[in-house]
Amino acid sequence: MFGRFERMVAGRYLRARRGERFASIIAVFSLVGIALGVATLIIVMSVMNGFKADLMGRILGLHGDLTVFGYGRPIEAYQNDVEAIRSVPGVKSVIPMAQGTVLVEAGRYSTGAEVQGVAQQDLRDWRALSSGVIAGSIDRFTGDDAVAIGTTMADRAGLTVGSPITLLSPDGQATPFGTMPRVKTYHVAVIFDANWNDYNSNIVLVPLPAAQKFLMLGNAVSLIQVSTNDPSNVQPTRQAIVQRLDDPRLRVLDWTQSANGFLDAVTVEQNVMFLILTLIILVAAFNVISSLIMMVKDKTRDIAVLRTLGASRGAIMRIFLMNGAFVGIVGTAAGSALGIAFALNIERIRQWLQSLTGTNLFNPEVYFLERLPAKLVWSQVGEVIAMSLVLSLLATLYPSWRAARTDPIEALRHE
Question: Between 285 and which of 19, 261, 328, 395 could a Cys-Cys bridge form, CB atoms 3.0 to 4.6 Å apart?
Answer without folding.
Answer: 395
